[in-house]
Amino acid sequence: RKRRMPGRWETVHTSNDPDGREEGGSFTWRGRLCLLGGRGVLPVECLEPRSWRWETHSAHTHDLHHVQPVEYQGQFWVVSGWVGAWPAEQQIKETVLYDPGAQRLSRGCPIPDGHRRGAAGAIMW
């Protein structure tokens, strides 16, 4: 293996490809890069860096897009985003939680009307 250079982009060739997606989100979990959401019905997929193979999780999102998951207490939360197809997209009304260990999506708490947005850059501080 060649030495990784911090702060530099490089092309990585994987042994398989993830599902094509647009306007989904990503997060890191246990050293893996994971993809969540996008337009259409899509599985959560995580890249295993030791094998450079994409692993497909059993959970699927349904037209959940413009999202940025953020980790809190072992789950990844989506606190804003859209559902549906253009031009009738709607803001999500409840948070979406993903538990990667259990490979389970669930609904969280309601998002107050005045705080619903089409997308967000979310961080945990």
UniProtKB/TrEMBL annotation:
Highest taxon in the source lineage: Eukaryota
InterPro entries named in the record: Kelch-typ_b-propeller
Disordered: region residues: 1-25
Protein name (database record): Uncharacterized protein
Annotated source species: Coccolithus braarudii
Lineage of the organism: Eukaryota, Haptista, Haptophyta, Prymnesiophyceae, Coccolithales
